[in-house]
Amino acid sequence: MTDITASSAASAPNRERIKASLRRRQAAETRFRAFGIGSVLIAVGFVVFLFSTILHDGLPAFWQPVVTVDVFFDPEIIEVDPKPEPLEGQSAAEFQRASLDWQRQVTMVNWNRIIQNSVAREAPDVELSAREIQALIESNERYRLRDMFVVSPGLLGSTVPLELLASANVDVWLKGDIDRSLGNDRQQLPEATRILADRFYEDGRIRMAFASTLFTNTDSRNAPAEAGLLGAFIGSLYMMLIVIVLAVPIGVASAIYLEEFAPKNKITDLIEVNINNLAAVPSIVFGLLGAAVFINYFQLPLSAPLVGGLVLTLMTLPTVIIATRAALRAVPPSLRQAALGLGASKSQAVFHHVLPVTYPGILTATIIGVAQAIGETAPLLLIGMNAFVTTLPTTPLDQSTALPVQIFLWEGNENRNYFEPKTAAAIIILLAVMLVLNAIAIILRSRFERRA
Amino acid sequence: MNSLVVAALLLVLLAVSYQVGLSRSRAVATGSTLKMHSRPNYHGMMVALWCLIPAALILLAWLFFGDNIERSYTLSLLPPEVVNSDPNQLRDVLRRVEQISTGYGVVGDSQPYENAAGQALQEFRLLTFWSIVAAAAAVGIIGLLAMRARIAPRLRARNEFETIIKFLLAVCSGIAILTTVGIVASLLREALRFFTFISPIDFFFGTVWSPRFAATASGDYGQYGLLPLLWGTLMVASIAMMVAIPLGLMSAIYLAEYAPRKVRAVAKPMIEILAGIPSVIYGFFALVTLGPALSALGDMIGVPIRATSALTAGIAMGIMIIPFVSSLSDDIITQVPRAMRDGSLGMGATKSETIKRVILPAALPGIVGAFLLAVSKAFGETMIVVLAAGNAPILRFNPFDATSTVTVSIVNQLTGDTNFASPQSLVAFALGLTLFVMTLGLNVIALYVVRKYREQYE
Amino acid sequence: MMFNAPESQKMNTNAAPVAIADPKKVDLPTGFKTVRTPDPEPRPVRVHADDVCVFYGSKQALFDVSIDIPEKAVTAFIGPSGCGKSTFLRCLNRMNDTIEGARVEGKITLDGEDLYDPKLDVVELRARIGMVFQKPNPFPKTIFENVAYGPRIHGLARSKTDLEQIVVESLKKASLFNEVKDRLHEVGTGLSGGQQQRLCIARAIAVSPEVILMDEPCSALDPIATAKIEELIDELRANYTIVIVTHSMQQAARVSQRTAFFHLGILVEEGPTEMMFTSPAEKRTQDYITGRFG
């Protein structure tokens, strides 16, 4: 205003200087803010990009081509004795042997030939070699015919319309995962097979069916189109159960001891530091521990989910302990004092009053730990869980692999064109499992919290 | 069937003993003028423990030693010349005896001594099983009766029970210590065994990494120089840090200081999703998408970039570590008291000046701690580098070329058929020890720094 | 005496209004007229507020506050917890901008310039209207760097000696120089509470503000340190326009020339301090001053 005072006179040059600096400083401010927004956008962009890449790559692999073929169980090719029946006075072992002999005969049958002839009948106007037809159908489909026949030998001489899985190379060709303009020498399929596949696809004899094999089969090397995740899934399930059964009670118990009962002295300090450090030990070191202790010293079997589960338990334990302790620490001391003040013993106060309040926290800790364990790969490689296993593990001591390890193995498969989408599909399944775990956690959490 | 019987036995013992304790306690209480020290359910639980623990011990002992006892009993039934024959033949005989004993039968003719042994084994099994069950039940009941006799008004059953529980809790927390001891002991033991083959000097200062395959070399084990691996580890980790630190820190700053609440509520969990993704998935992403993209970019600007290189692995790892850096930094930045911000803003500082000149310097120790933890995570990361770094353990300085790390070599040396006697696989433990010491050092410093920082504002 | 109950510290840091259930609340805030008593010899007005309302989200914290703040004098804002006195103080240098969801309506001018003019840079404004907070909040830097902070960010010093001169001058004005002249390069957080608060005042003075806002500057201090700060405020009055929020009526009576009484978000009464404490025109002011509530 009009009255210029001493103080404002003194600050007048300052005001000029501040005014002069404003533009530069506001520009710096805008820049800094833009860096911040940019970083957040890049980080969020990575999430979106990662997921869209995986979905884009993996979703098509949930469908795979199947060929509708009228399969003729040709008696001229299937030359076997009648199926043996259990006889009076025959021991179980003897019957078993007779059955095995018969099955051996059935296996000796040239089932490929049956497939070849049946497919050739579907396209009578084309001249096709056995190899060219064979390339169309997944090689293990012959076992499907064999198994059908073993179950019902009456099929002999009849014609059955069947949907046979197309081979992995047909899958790649039809989905365009290989450059269709490549020359003959660089294509995985013979030219005649490619033409046949396209023709069948156009006239509907090849259709894209849901790839249920992904969920019902174990890994397979000679029949990639039939390779599935069931074995790995069961392996992971066993390990998950072991982690839940061991890591959660032990982790919660140690957390309760350290937080509520332990005297504050050098030893508990040591345990505390030790647990914090253990949480940051690289997972692969736990793999080394498993290899040296469980495999080498205790002579537990290689590739067993039991060993994997134990290793993952040790790895998850610090996470569960730290999170449970945080949950316990968050319980207001007034609750303990109230219980103790009413004459409850320390244990009663902890187990009846403090612990129930922390259930949501413990649950979250468990899920975080289990999710971390279920996605872990490196330590499992060191205890042999990267073995190629085609049988379903029936106990935790059987050979098995795990979901992330299966992903790793498929990633390394030399048939990249086929296994890249399949790996992405396996990744989608792994992420779905983790999503389900988290969803369960959220639901249970809200239940607990409502009750509390 | 057997396990069902055992489970039934344990359940029955549990139910009976608890009820006995409970009713005895009530009976004592009504028959006495004294006030009971502990409530009946504590007496019940003590009786159950006294009953179940001895019974379970007997069953466990049978679980551990039963097979051996059975085997030596079977051997005693067989003629000595069979027992002393070659192991394969003996195993075959034992299998046949086993099959006869279970009633499955064998194919073809069986030796009379096999039949006899099979029969005897079957009877022996039945006998031992039921006697073990009976013994367990008997011991359990003795324990039950002994504890029941102790029940009296003055018995401090609750305190005894709580002492047992407390002891069990303490044992559980000891497992963490045991794990560390196990890690250190097994790494040291196997690493020392490795150093009997290869001198530590050659290992720690060697510049060539080329282990021979165990099968091919009899006397020549190859060279085990650590330096190429260490260099690769450092290179990949530094690239990862160059990605993760600026992005993680700046996102944390933006979300903590600038972002409106709604943006923060969406963006923060979005970024944290990155932390929950298993590293093998980042490996896939790096191998299938990132590597080829970088390689194409290299072609465009005229720099040869390999699809699997230190750069590819480093960037993928950096992305993985972003949420780690950002959530740790976020914790630390939000711990700086609001009064600091007000003090600076109240003087006319802009927000960025406040952040750069007041908040970050105040939070510096904590942030440095967070960075160290992130570096230690990068050192120990395995799957991304296994898949995307190209596995070339050569001492070279071009980040656009393939490289290898300590963790990759551990995986390479110890997967497949593991033979714990050869330096080829033992070296994994020497590498593991190196990795363990490196990460442990970083963690100890980082945890110390972070803790000091917390104390500053508490 | 009985009014010295420390106001909830949270009040000033997040400034969320606490609704006080007051049985004496009879009239609705809207349409209320502040009772004003002018000074016997009117002083020039520096800051002028006109119908200022403040909202936090949907909650209204201040209702139509209008006041003139005279230059080279100390104006004290008094009133019970949650009455809006701190909220109004923070409006004067737009510190409410830093709170999410806060909205200010009405007009505030400094020498006739609208403080809430969108063209006005808040950085420049805060350099002219400095602020001292309830809890001493020196930065975790050296004493020298604390005082040099403002001149540095605003680019006020042309040389190193210039900067040193500003720091020494400011410390002298805050009567802290003699106590710290030997340890200028030690950490500011190592000082005693009273010294820290004087350091914060020195820090505010260093950018030569025209107005200094003080938000309960003594509430975290012991009586001796409080006395020192009050002495300092009295000295500073010669050169600066000072507004002080205080919970202590004795303090208001000791240091201020004018007093404004806030209650439930309303400026109830304002006038010369002496008059306010001896013969207030409003009943509520009377009740508060005599300790009937608050």
Automatic annotation (TrEMBL), chain A:
Domain of life, source organism: Bacteria
Entry membrane topology: Multi-pass membrane protein
GO-annotated biological processes: phosphate ion transmembrane transport
Domain named ABC transmembrane type-1: residues: 233-441
GO molecular function: phosphate transmembrane transporter activity
Coiled coil: none
Compartment(s) where it occurs, according to its Swiss-Prot or TrEMBL record: Cell inner membrane; Cell membrane
Cell membrane in keyword set: yes
Record key words, sorted: Cell membrane, Membrane, Transmembrane, Transmembrane helix, Transport
InterPro entries: DUF3333, MetI-like, MetI-like_sf, Phosphate_PstA
Keyword hit for 4Fe-4S: no
Family: Belongs to the binding-protein-dependent transport system permease family. CysTW subfamily.
NCBIfam families the UniProt entry points to: 3a0107s02c (TIGR00974)
Record protein name field: Phosphate transport system permease protein PstA
Source species of the chain: Tianweitania sediminis
Gene: pstA
From TrEMBL, chain B:
Keyword Oxidoreductase: no
Gene3D superfamilies: MetI-like (1.10.3720.10)
GO molecular function list: phosphate transmembrane transporter activity
Spans through the membrane: 43-65, 127-147, 167-185, 229-256, 277-298, 310-333, 354-375, 426-450
Pfam families: BPD_transp_1, DUF3708
Subcellular location: Cell inner membrane; Cell membrane
One Gene Ontology biological process: phosphate ion transport
Domain ABC transmembrane type-1 stretches: 230-446
Keyword tRNA-binding: no
Top-rank lineage group of the source organism: Bacteria
InterPro entries: MetI-like (IPR000515), MetI-like_sf (IPR035906), Phosphate_PstC (IPR011864), PstC_N (IPR022182)
Any one cellular-component term (Gene Ontology): plasma membrane
Topology within the bilayer: Multi-pass membrane protein
Keyword tags: Cell inner membrane, Cell membrane, Membrane, Phosphate transport, Transmembrane, Transmembrane helix, Transport
Family: Belongs to the binding-protein-dependent transport system permease family. CysTW subfamily.
Function: Part of the binding-protein-dependent transport system for phosphate; probably responsible for the translocation of the substrate across the membrane.
Protein's UniProt name: Phosphate transport system permease protein
Source organism per UniProt: Tianweitania sediminis
Source organism phylogeny: Bacteria, Pseudomonadati, Pseudomonadota, Alphaproteobacteria, Hyphomicrobiales
